[in-house]
Amino acid sequence: FNTAAQVDELITPPVEIRYTKHLINGQFVEAASGKTFPTYDPRTGEVIAHVSEGDEEDINRAVSAARKAFDEGPWPKMTAYERSRILLQIADLVEKHSDELAALETWNNGKLYEQAAKIELPIFVRLLRYYAGWADKIHRLTVPADGNYHVQTLHEPIGVAGQIIPWNFPLLLFSWKVGPALACGNTLVVKTAEQTPLTGLFAAQLFHEAGLPPGVLNVVSGFGPVAGSALASHMDVDKIAFTGSTETGKIIYQLAAKSNLKPVTLELGGKSPFIVCEDADVDKAVELAHFAQFFNQGQCCCARSRTYVHERIYDEFLEKAKATALKRVVGDPFKKGVEKGPQIDSKQLEKILGHIRSGIECNATLECGGERIGKKGFFLQPTVFSNVQDDMLIAKDEIFGPVQTILKFKDTEEVIRRANKTRYGLAAGVFTKNLDTANTLMRGLRAGTVWINCFNVFDAAIPFGGYKMSGVGREKGIYSLHNYLQVKAVVTPLNDPAW
Ligand code: ADP
């Protein structure tokens, strides 16, 4: 394994931790209970800060602030153009602080600094500009109803939106949630993930510095079953959006239903296929399949974690996939040239190692990897399994780690059937030069995104979300606006007899 940039001499993160308290009504405040919880550096497992620990009382305070900001304004009452301008100012300020935000993201999450700075922050900024562009382009309809009536629809913000985000893309998913919701004029309470509370607070502070009025965006740190569930079940929250595991998604749905039937958007887990057809350029397919699986340490809901390879190229693909995994440089995510950082925490590391054991026990072939690197931090070898069968747990359960499972197939109809035989349906990758094969696969695969001969294209305008148990609703693009608007039909009689 290439652990050249070893994990012992670590780079000191080029950023300070300035914000650790809840951000409620434009002010940083301690938790009502006074409690804090530690947050860690995944490179070492050491505590880097103590963060205010939110409970029901903190959520109540944040929801009250958001309610007041919604009911009294100015945010929902501003012209859409004014909202758009503030969002553009926010995008500029976030862009200016991109390097610091990226460094803090790497420090708290373990993802590659280059990836945070060059891919994720630009996506954040672009997405804000995209939705700033939408804010003043949300048109209503005039409806041609029967009878003597003038009928129109108003598209109004829903109100106070609760948004719960996970730890794998703390900033990126923060932007996917708050961008469209703010553009539509809602006010928000965001609950960040307990593993990665730091960057959401920093970003939210920049939103205020750029001109967002107090109370519009409130950020509470804390644990899911306490702060998260208080938000999902709050009677004064009008909408809840969640990204995380399918198991927790089900809980959120229930809490929303049991409380006030607030509408729910869920972006959940996946077990996405990557299908390499017989006509593929094997070297390119290996590279794409590799990144589609190992990007972000494999901690992606849309990781293409079942690599289906046509039997005619299977042996060559396998050999090259293994060589690619062995070459991947594991080490300090701040270092240039490092390609894989640590997993987020010991719980995830243990979970992934458990999946690897299960793969070995059911006689999949461990081609490479499978072990922890060093004793400090949560580093794991890039792992490749071959001889994987559809009914093995490693081919069914979401592993959420750097584990590629390679399966063999014979023909297109067969691979569609097998790829669809999962409770998930988030994404799929297809690699072929044949247009007919691409079309057949694209139509046959039951997934919210199909990337053909490419992977992980996350443009702000492209909708993202899941079929089946991978989610409810779509985020990004025009589709996210529907999540944060409701429709009011307005009917006025027309007294002109000519009508
Ligand atoms: P993971 O297991 O990968 O941490 P989760 O889906 O549990 O993923 O977490 C995603 C987000 O959901 C986090 O912000 C977490 O705090 C929150 N969460 C976890 N459990 C609950 C719950 N019971 N109610 C509300 N939010 C929750």
UniProtKB/TrEMBL annotation:
E.C. code = 1.2.1.3
Task: Identify which top EC class this enzyme belongs to.
Answer: oxidoreductase
Spell out the InterPro entries in the cross-references: Ald_DH/histidinol_DH, Ald_DH_C, Ald_DH_CS_CYS, Ald_DH_CS_GLU, Ald_DH_N, Aldehyde_DH_dom
Residue positions of the active site? E267
GO cellular component term, pick one: mitochondrial matrix
Show the SUPFAM superfamilies listed in the entry: ALDH-like
Ordered alphabetically, the record's keywords are: NAD, Oxidoreductase
- Per the record, what are the reactions this protein catalyses? an aldehyde + NAD(+) + H2O = a carboxylate + NADH + 2 H(+)
Q: Name one Pfam family in it.
A: Aldedh
What sequence ranges are listed for the domain Aldehyde dehydrogenase?
28-490
Q: CDD domains given for it?
A: ALDH_F2BC
Q: Which Gene Ontology biological process is one annotated for this entry?
A: carboxylic acid metabolic process
Any single GO molecular-function term of the entry would be: aldehyde dehydrogenase (NAD+) activity
Report which superkingdom the organism of origin falls in.
Answer: Eukaryota
Where does this polypeptide localize? Mitochondrion matrix
Tell me if Cell cycle is a UniProt keyword of this record.
no
Family assignment from sequence similarity: Belongs to the aldehyde dehydrogenase family.
Main function: Possesses activity on acetaldehyde and glycolaldehyde in vitro.
Q: What is this protein called?
A: aldehyde dehydrogenase (NAD(+))
